[in-house]
Amino acid sequence: MAITQDEVLAALKECYDPEIPVNIVDLGLIYEVRVSPGAAQGEDIEVEMTLTAPGCPSAGQITDQVKQRLLRMPGVSGANVELVWYPQWTPERLSAEARRQLGID
Question: Over the range 11-38, which residues count as b (16 or more CB within 10 Å of their CB) and which as e?
Answer without folding.
Answer: bbeebbbeebebbbbbbbbbbebebeee
